[in-house]
Amino acid sequence: MSGPVVPPRGWEQWKQIIHGFFPGKPKFTEGQYPSFEGKVVIVTGGNTGVGYETVKSLAGSTKAKLYIFSRSEEKTLEAIKQIQLEVAKEYNISNREIHFIKVDLSDLETIKPAVQKFLSQESRLDLIIHNAGVMTPPVGSKSKQGYELQLGTNTIGPHLLQRLLDPIFIETSKKNAPGVSRIVWVASSGHQFAPLGGFHWDDVNFEKMKVTNNDQMMIYGQSKAGNVIQARTWTRKHNTGSQIISSSICPGFLDTDLQRHISSFEKVMYKFILHPRRMGAYTELFAAFSPDVKDGSHSISFGVPGHARKDLLDPEVCDKVWNYLNKVTDPYM
C-alpha cells in the first residue's frame, strides 16, 4: 500500500491562504440579497457557527421560508429562539418563522426520514446550503456506518441528502429563472491539503496507516475535496444546463465551533488570526445569491471568486469520487 501524496501548494494556493487571513470587507451584503418571497431554503447545521449566522441573515434580509436541518432538537429550538430575538433587534422583524427537521449526517439511516418529513410539508425547494460539518475530531472517530467521521459527515451524508432532495429541487428549478436555484457546498481551503486526486483510495478511512496529528489536516482536506468535487460535478451529472448553479466555497478563516477539538494552545493562537463567524455568512450568501457566481465555481472569504486545486477539477477524478459516493449511499436511497 502506498502512502498518500499531497501536491505542493503553488502561488495560486498560497495567495488564497493569505487572502483568508486578510480578506477585507464583504462587498455583497444584505442590501443586495433578493427577497426570495415564496421560496424555500434549507441550511444544514444552521443552529451553530456560520450556519447560525447564515440563517439569521436570511431571516432578517429575505422573506424565504427557512429550514434548519440538524441533529439536536433541543439545541436547534433554542438557537431558533435566539435567532428570532436577534432578528427582532437587528432587523426589526418580529416572530420570524424558522423550521427545524432532525437529521444526523453522520448516520445515513436518519437522512431519508428527514427528507420524507420535509416533503410532507413542502412542495418546492429553491436553495440548499450544505453547511454542516466537523473538523479534526479525535483520531479514529467514525460515523455510524464506520466511515472516517469527517468523510462520513462532511461528504457522504450531504451526498445522500442531496440525492434524496434532487427530485423536488430539480422540479422547482424549472419554475425559476436560470441561476436562481442553487446548491452551496461549504468546503474549505483545507481541500488544498487533500491527497492527490482528492481521496486516498488505498485507505479512504485511514485505518491501515498510523495516523498522527500531522495527518489531521490531510484527512479533513479529503472530506473538503469531496465537497469541491460534488460542486463541480453535480450539474454535469444532472443535465440541467444553466438552470441550476452548484458551487463550492471556503467561508473564511473563522472562529467557530469547528475548532472545539483543537488544543488549548491552538485555541489561544486562533483568537488572534480568525475572523468573526458572522463574516462567513457573507461568503455563503454570496454563493447563494450573487450574479457573479458561476456553476462549478469556487468562492473564498468574504464573497470573492477563488480557485479549487486543479487536480480536483479533472473529470476522471470527479467521476471516480462521484461514483464512490453514489455506491456507498445507494443502500440508503
Automatic annotation (TrEMBL):
<dbReference type="InterPro" id="IPR002347">
    <property type="entry name" value="SDR_fam"/>
</dbReference>
<dbReference type="GO" id="GO:0016491">
    <property type="term" value="F:oxidoreductase activity"/>
</dbReference>
<comment type="similarity">
    <text>Belongs to the short-chain dehydrogenases/reductases (SDR) family.</text>
</comment>
<dbReference type="InterPro" id="IPR036291">
    <property type="entry name" value="NAD(P)-bd_dom_sf"/>
</dbReference>
<dbReference type="Pfam" id="PF00106">
    <property type="entry name" value="adh_short"/>
</dbReference>
<protein>
    <submittedName>
        <fullName>Short-chain alcohol dehydrogenase</fullName>
    </submittedName>
</protein>
<keyword id="KW-0521">NADP</keyword>
<keyword id="KW-0560">Oxidoreductase</keyword>
